[in-house]
Design goal:
Four copies of one chain form a homotetramer.
Chain A lengths: L8 E8 L4 H11 L4 E9 L4 E8 L5 H14 L4 E5 L6 E6 L4 H11 L6 E7 L5 H6 L4 E3 L6 H13 L5 E4 L8 H6 L4 E5 L11 H8 L3 E8 L9 E8 L6 H24 L3 E4 L2 E4 L2
Parallel strand pairs in A: 5-6, 5-8, 6-7, 8-9
Antiparallel strand pairs in A: 1-3, 1-4, 2-3, 9-10, 10-11, 12-13
Amino acid sequence: MESKSNKPLVVTVRSKDRGGLVADISKVIAGAKGNILDVGQHSDVETGIFGCRIEVEPDINRPKLISKMKLMEEGDKSIQWNLYEPGEIPKIVIACSTTQHCLIDLLSRIAIGELECEVVGVVSDRIDCDETAGRFNIPFTYIPVGDNRESQEERFAEFLNTSNGDLVVLARYMRILPSTVCEDWSGKMINIHHSFLPAFVGANPYRRAHERGVKLIGATAHYVTAELDAGPIIVQEVEGVSHRDSLDDLVRRGADIERRTLSEAVRLHLEHRVMVFGNRTCIFD
Amino acid sequence: MESKSNKPLVVTVRSKDRGGLVADISKVIAGAKGNILDVGQHSDVETGIFGCRIEVEPDINRPKLISKMKLMEEGDKSIQWNLYEPGEIPKIVIACSTTQHCLIDLLSRIAIGELECEVVGVVSDRIDCDETAGRFNIPFTYIPVGDNRESQEERFAEFLNTSNGDLVVLARYMRILPSTVCEDWSGKMINIHHSFLPAFVGANPYRRAHERGVKLIGATAHYVTAELDAGPIIVQEVEGVSHRDSLDDLVRRGADIERRTLSEAVRLHLEHRVMVFGNRTCIFD
Amino acid sequence: MESKSNKPLVVTVRSKDRGGLVADISKVIAGAKGNILDVGQHSDVETGIFGCRIEVEPDINRPKLISKMKLMEEGDKSIQWNLYEPGEIPKIVIACSTTQHCLIDLLSRIAIGELECEVVGVVSDRIDCDETAGRFNIPFTYIPVGDNRESQEERFAEFLNTSNGDLVVLARYMRILPSTVCEDWSGKMINIHHSFLPAFVGANPYRRAHERGVKLIGATAHYVTAELDAGPIIVQEVEGVSHRDSLDDLVRRGADIERRTLSEAVRLHLEHRVMVFGNRTCIFD
Amino acid sequence: MESKSNKPLVVTVRSKDRGGLVADISKVIAGAKGNILDVGQHSDVETGIFGCRIEVEPDINRPKLISKMKLMEEGDKSIQWNLYEPGEIPKIVIACSTTQHCLIDLLSRIAIGELECEVVGVVSDRIDCDETAGRFNIPFTYIPVGDNRESQEERFAEFLNTSNGDLVVLARYMRILPSTVCEDWSGKMINIHHSFLPAFVGANPYRRAHERGVKLIGATAHYVTAELDAGPIIVQEVEGVSHRDSLDDLVRRGADIERRTLSEAVRLHLEHRVMVFGNRTCIFD
């Protein structure tokens, strides 16, 4: 919809919270002849951390901006900052198992430009999604478990590490990852869990939701951490259900919630709109 | 809105599921010259139980209806049935502690006729709600804990048992009830829990929701059973929240979800629209 | 998820409303040794019409069922009924213009079996969607307007009439159809309109929503009639928006609402769950 | 919940949009030894107006703050600003007709401190709400139409003008107001309309919603302007409905949407969280 040349430069900053930070950063940008298009900011009471995301018109004087940001950083060692150029297209890897709805939804959105990124590979422990990846001309890598779980985990980790990906999306990848993988990809690996966490952590959430007789079902997209289904939540959505809904109905309706929850989380991440404070996220929307 | 004389007679039936039940019941009603206004029915796959709720015009021949229902019952011992006359006004007891929003909401809706019932008493372990009960001319009974928890529980149970109430509503009553009370009032005691169960069972759900960084909060109205916050769910509602919401914001916004979730559950119960199958409810709406 | 052989036979019946209809139909099915799996029924007060949708196990005696339904029909000329065999795969045509999100979402869901139908063609007044259709190996027919609107309309109508399609889905096809086409495809043509009708009938609903400062946006899937955006509504969904949302944000967020609203409407239609009473629909869900 | 002494001072500023405004205002507050607790800001693209709402700890040096704000105002004539002291309790007037659910909900929330304001009077063209006002010890003024519509309008306007109210809430007041009243109370009079505007402007929205067969109903709280139901929207909410819902069901379910939509709009206004830009609102939440 928009041409790339009109897209803004994104600056993110996080630091120990103190008064006057927004004013200071605004001054830096003004000093580099930058025109601010949008500001999102948050002071997190629990962690005492300040974060902001600023969209700037792309004709800003970059060398000046960078030198002034470095100056600011020297004066306050707690400051961490990033520049994201409008032309940088992030690379993503998608992992999946047998269920295809999240995978095909992501690939479709990327194909029509709704999500701006390049899929460098689809990887799976099951053969099922091969055709779907092929439909979108994405290389598919099959890493089955066979009779050796640990070997599969090693090859999977190796695949990610050599993938050149900036982000890994677990689109209903149904294997628990070794904690080393979780740590290596901290803040860069998004999972979709098919329940409104923290309800129904772990396996078979729809079955357990049906048995508990809940009146709503949902999905949660979160960053992966070593503890199962316990990482920082990015997006959660739910819908009402009734006694008329069988377990199959929950699975079908849940699939629709999962796909839109996951794709929204991926979009927010790709646009640098998510900042993690402790185990919670701030969304600059 | 409607005059009482136009209100329907409600017939509920539950039995072991078998073919032709609706046809059989319809025939009984037709035989008593009854005109069916509305039918809700459900065959529960898990328990193998059939349930239905039928609204009939009130000019039906009652003796004939009753004798034919008894005949049906003799032919199938699994059948349980009830007639609810339009003129019967249920009596309810409301229990609360310090928080008043659910109490005042229920009393307001009853005062303007939105919920058709008579409140025979408000009971509390805290003195705070005295004035609110008085505003609606409802007797307030104060049963404090003092230095003897067990004595309080006994007097509370005694109060309910002598209250003449058909239904007990726990409108943010913050004490855990002895299991004998839960059993005595099985299917006749509704609690509001301030989370989307089964997430955040027990104390301080908003604090834990805030700490977990969830992106939605909710409330659950359920029948009370001996296991804490584990009874059959009647109504659940949620709303989205964000990192901008402090714990105080969650509490404030949650209060609004709680009041409408609880009042809706009470309405459904009073209109005989809830049927319990195992630990799940069917809502004839 | 389910194998085809387990799928039920669907029987739909509509007729003038009278007592005992469900009992009569149940008896017919029992007489053909059919086992009822699910019943949805509705008595429409405004039109005085009764409708029902019944799922029956597929091993029912069909000749007996058909002869008994015909008998019933002879006794009550207002009765209209249909049998839908589990093996009948409906054929659909999808029409679109420049916007691709609804098209690719439908094709994706059909490709992975979420929607059970066969797409016999994609037709468009614009060339944009050619690649997307090709990705799913669907023939694409380009019928541009050029300098003759009427000729385009004729060729478009001709295409539909010779398409062998059972259903036409207007997936953001941005042209107004001649009333003859609307009549020919009455009850068999679904459109997605990008607003919560009856708000913002016609062109540019997001722009007008933004200007009016509404706090929610939505989408409406409806059967097409000769009057613009005024046909029977099948599904409507909305989401909250805020002053932070620009017009581009509304368009982006609306796209997500549109795709799920349209695909849900198509699913309901394909499963014979929609019945039209006057200008309103009943959904047997 | 919070003691008054902890409540913040609220500063609102609006002006022509230009760079550096937030920085300038932050400096003014820092100069008066004020500690900023929360900042909401919006640059409205359509009108070119900037607005912000800042919460400051109440121990700020007020004379210094005021003198510096005046200085800023002199340098930029487009600046308009307000200070709201935590101790200032706004006064409100509530107007209603026969329907009581919005009135009793507002009075209940005010009685338990959820909405912080003082109700100086309830006024009505109908006698019905007398008892409800009395329950909360609020003076009730009855201004019937009788045989002279214009005289009623004059007395109603006179009542408002002499009421000492800061805000008028039309809680289902079913009369159209003369445009002079709308202008006198511009930005200080909130109405609840029982539809999701701009759908179903004017009378009988539920009936028309039922006839149109919509799949959702809603309510809209907005500032009153001379054009009927066309003023700036503050809050809108909707809920799904189905063919099972009769007109009476829509009315009942709508009542619940109306009350929470209206009370939320009143809360936002009382906390100075609403700013009007043209015919749209910005909500600092």
